Amino acid sequence: xxPSVGDVKFVKNTQAIDLMGKGKLPVVDNFDLFAKVGMSxxxxxxxxxxxxxxxxxxxxxxxxxxxxxxxxxxVSAEWLRFNGNVKMxxxxxxxxxxxxxxxxxxxxxxxxxxxFDM
Length: 118
Description:
Layout lengths: L3 E2 L2 E2 L1 E18 L2 E16 L7 E15 L4 E10 L22 E10 L4
Antiparallel strand pairs: 1-2, 3-4, 4-5, 5-6, 6-7
């Protein structure tokens, strides 16, 4: 059951599509730090009757690290922040369908990659 406050219900799920640039800083032979920045398109679905989604194009950024176990096997850890729209219209005379609230979304990821030599 979705928690609610009066007639306002909360966002149920969020999806993101992003396009980012990545800059790397080699620290030692097998360890790199990196930063990302770009744009993201967020779609959030809610449980509010008559409102299926809120969509925003906004800033996205993050940071992480790569550790090269071998020259071809890399373990990575990273954090990404997708900016949403935190302005919420709580005017009781305004229709709830105009509300485009979307939370800031954080993603924490750990990955294992294989680099193919060409």
